[in-house]
Specification:
The protein contains no helices and ten strands. It has about 110 residues and is an all-beta fold. It has a six-stranded mixed β-sheet with strand order 2-10-9-4-5-6, with no helix packed on it. Strands 1-3-8-7 form a four-stranded antiparallel β-sheet, with no helix packed on it.
């Protein structure tokens, strides 16, 4: 069974940066595409970024150029580097293994002045 543990969230001012991490277990990590999602208060959970097994990445338009998804297969860890954060990036961020229904507990990111 896939287990996911997100960390790295916090309170940051607009324009600031955070790096999220997601530790995964229960799978052969390097075999799978991995994703970040987020859910803002009162909104549906939305896709943010994906990284395929061979490293190809994709992003939603609103974070392109500001966020970078990456993976360390040796550490079974997924990352999301978030720069130039905006108020609208405030959300709980979740990681997911593509094709699996499991979610972690999420990590809260709050962008506020």
């Amino acid at each position: 069974q896939v287990q996911l543990v997100e960390s790295g969230g916090g309170l940051v001012q607009p324009g600031g940066s955070l790096r999220l991490s997601c530790a995964a277990s229960g799978i052969i990590f390097s075999d799978y595409a991995l994703e970040w999602y987020r859910q803002a208060p009162g909104k549906q959970r939305e896709f943010v970024a994906r990284i395929f097994a061979r490293g190809v990445t994709s992003y939603i338009a609103s974070v392109k150029g500001r966020f970078t998804i990456s993976r360390d297969n040796a550490k079974n860890t997924l990352y999301l580097q978030m720069n130039s954060l905006k108020l609208e990036d405030t959300a709980v961020y979740y990681c997911r293994v593509f094709g699996f229904a499991s979610w972690g507990q999420g990590t809260q990111v709050t962008v506020s002045s």
